[in-house]
Amino acid sequence: MIERNPVLTAVCHLILVVGALLVCAPLYFAFVAGSHTGPEMQQVPQPMLPGNQFLHNLAIAWETAGFGRAFVNTVLVSCAIVVGKIALSILAGFAITYFRFPFRMTAFWLIFMSLMLPVEVRIVPTYEAVADAAGPLRWLLQATGLAALVQALAGVDVHAGLKFSLVDTYSGLTLPLIASATAVFLFRQFFLTIPDDLCEAAKLDGAGPMRFLRDVVLPLSVPNIAALAIILFIYGWNQYLWPLLFTTQKDMTTVIIALKGLLPGPMDPAEWWSYAMAASFIVMLPPAFVILALQRWFARGLVDAGK
Amino acid sequence: MSATETATGVGAASAAPRLRLPLPSRRFFTASRSGLKRAHFEQTWLAALLLSPQILILLFFFFIPSFKALSLAFVQTDPFGGRTIFVGMQNFVELFTDPAYRNSALLTLWFTIVQNLATLFIAGVLAFATDYVIRLRVAYRSVLLLPYAIAPVISGAVWAYLFNPVVGPAAAVIHGLGLPWDPNLRAGDALILITIASVWKHICYDYIFLVAAMLAVPQSLREAAAIDGAGPLQRFFTVSLPLIMPTVMYLFIINMVYGLFDTFGIIDAVTAGGPAGSTATLVYKVYQDGFIMLNLGSSAAQSIVLMVLAVLFTVLQFRALDRKVNYQV
After folding, report:
1. Is residue A200 part of a domain?
2. B75 φ/ψ angles, rounded to the nearest 5 degrees
3. Whole-number mean pLDDT of chain B?
4. Same domain membership, residue B186 and residue B287
């Protein structure tokens, strides 16, 4: 056991208390602002303790920004991202570690390349891809001459008819966010650590690949899946740039977009801050609850996912 | 930790000795065995079936858009007609001679580096303290992790409120000291504000990694140093810090990526790039020029510049990861 220095211990506790205060103080003052009416907040000196207007402010914010629908949308989109990304990643990771097939390395590198470009750097072209999801298909039809063939045979202009946009749809909100390979790599790394004996034993017992996946690989992956689910839920919940671009109608917005709409600009009345701060609290509650309740799984998973 | 080591061991057996990923070599198009389990299956059709959803979704939402970005960068489109003219490198020439873009690049550099170093330093001090104390460790950690759950937009909103010149309590304190403060009008104030909001949001991430790295430093090494008479701080700087240096390097790169790409929500909520473009970082400018000004050619050229940066940082990130494994005893 190493000697313990009481002075340094006290200093360390002090540092951590200051750190914790720096985390909490902004949230506390935001809560204070959210629980007073606008005129109360403009008194000098400002109130330092929470007031009793929180629900009142929240009700106004809820009405103005349409949070009811936004919450439903956000829950749906976040859960779709969690389920979709984990399912696709497990299958893809399983295929590239447990199967020998032609073009395995090509598939690996195709997936690896997608790690390099975060969504933010390709927003304009991805917007176009989502707004015109049938575009590549149309191009393919034209390039192969199929479109002309169909037109000649059936008299239907496939080229003009084949258009559909994913703007303002749930698929448009989720699919582009699922298209990234981070989780595939997490699962690949994990599958490589599973002892080969398990697979040999399963094969000896006559289990096929899907049986092996279901009965051996999936149960072993539960901790990874749980950690990833937490990280992806927070990721999906807090998305801003995608929904900002891909939703134009109010009944397709997410909570973060709705909240952003409430923030007052320099010219707006100052009492709007009270509504915005009250709404911030409700919006940050679900992910904060997930973090606090599932902290153990989350911290380990984040460090693993970073690797 | 051990998971990565084992994985590396397996992967490295058949791949290049240092790099963890199988290298694209002449085996690129053949069924090479690198990163493949010794006990494996052979059904090609099933593997193709399992891979197809991931590959399809990448094709539609990653490869085709990225390819389009590449091609858009070399043409000019007028926003109404949809006529495109091939202009070669002209978009890039215009971009690099545009003083607004160069300002934005400089601003991004300053913002990213300051944010990066501040985050690492504060997270490092907190991680050292967490490692040293025994009591209340879990409680401190829970509180310090909280900002991870908070959206960039909300972090921006809360700090924008605190420092709002009319209603913000923090701004009131600054005004009380007789100092000027108005992030809506003064460029420097706006930059400080987005830096604070970005650091506050990101400390928790570095902190988690540093605490995990410090826990992995072998107790025997610290005890040996203690027997040799090294105090706690000396032990940190001579034993722990060199061993966690790979994690620090990794976090340095992750922080750069965060500052470059993930602070969009914070900037949009706090300043919307203002006043007068003084907080429009490179990513924010892509959005502004592409979606608000509808200057698609310039915006695509900017996307390409960002793509180059992103690829660079990804390569560095994987190199940092290699180091990390190699250092471990």
Report:
1. yes
2. -125, 165
3. 80
4. yes
B164-200 pLDDT, tens digit each: 888 888 888 888 888 888 887 888 888 899 999 999 9
| Number of domains, chain B | 2
Q: How far is CA A59 from CA A81, A237, A276, A279, in A?
A: 29, 22, 11, 9
Q: Give the CATH number for residue B318.
A: 1.10.3720.10
Contact B53 A91 (CB under 8 A): yes
Q: Residue B126 falls within a domain, yes or no? A: yes
- Domain CATH number, residue A293: 1.10.3720.10
- CA A258 – CA B197 distance, rounded (Å): 20
The CA distance from A252 to the nearest CA of chain B, in Å, is 18
Least CA distance to B136: which residue of chain A?
A13
Residues B160 and B294 in one domain: yes
Residue at B41 is within a domain: no
- Position A246 in a domain: yes
Tokens of B250: 């990794």
SS3 content of chain B, % helix, strand, coil (to 5): 75, 0, 25
User: Which domain covers residue B106, as residue numbers?
Assistant: 93-327
Boundaries of domain holding A78? 63-115+180-306
User: Which secondary structure element, helix H or strand E, spans residue B84, and what is its range?
Assistant: strand B84-86
**Residue B77 phi, psi (nearest 5):** -120, 135
| Identity of the highest mean pLDDT range in A124-128, A148-152, B89-93 | B89-93
Q: Does A193 touch chain B (CB under 8 A)?
A: yes
A23, A137, A171: best to mutate for the B interface, most B CBs within 10 A = A23
Would you give the DSSP letter of residue A36? S
Supply the DSSP symbol for A139: H
pLDDT digits (tens, 9 = 90+) for A174-194: 888 887 777 888 888 888 888
| Residue given tokens 């389009």 in the structure block | B68
- Cα gap A127→A133, rounded to integer Å: 10
Say if residue B103 is in the same domain as residue B16: no
**Tokens read off for A34:** 């959210």
pLDDT at B77 over 70: no
Taking the C-alpha atoms of residue A145 and residue A150, their distance in angstroms, rounded to an integer, is: 9
CA distance B126 to A18: 10
- Closest among A227, A211, A216 to A191, alpha carbons compared: A216
Question: A99 - beta bridge partners?
Answer: B41
Look up residue B67 and give its amino acid: F
**Residue A32 included in any domain:** no
Closest Cβ opposite residue A273 in set B32, B167, B223: B167
CB-CB contact of A11 with B135 (8 Å): no
Residue with structure tokens 């926003």? B79
Residues B153, B10, single domain; the answer is: no
* Total count of residues recorded for chain B: 329
- Tell whether B55 is covered by a domain: no
- Residue B292 located in a structural domain: yes
A128 in Cβ contact with B300 (< 8 Å): no
| Most distant CA pair in chain A, distance | 89
**pLDDT tens by residue, A247-274:** 878 788 888 988 888 888 777 777 788 8
Please measure the distance between the N-terminal and C-terminal CA atoms of chain B and give it in whole angstroms: 12
The minimum CA-CA distance between B301 and chain A, rounded to whole Å, is 11
Would you say residue A237 lies in a domain? yes
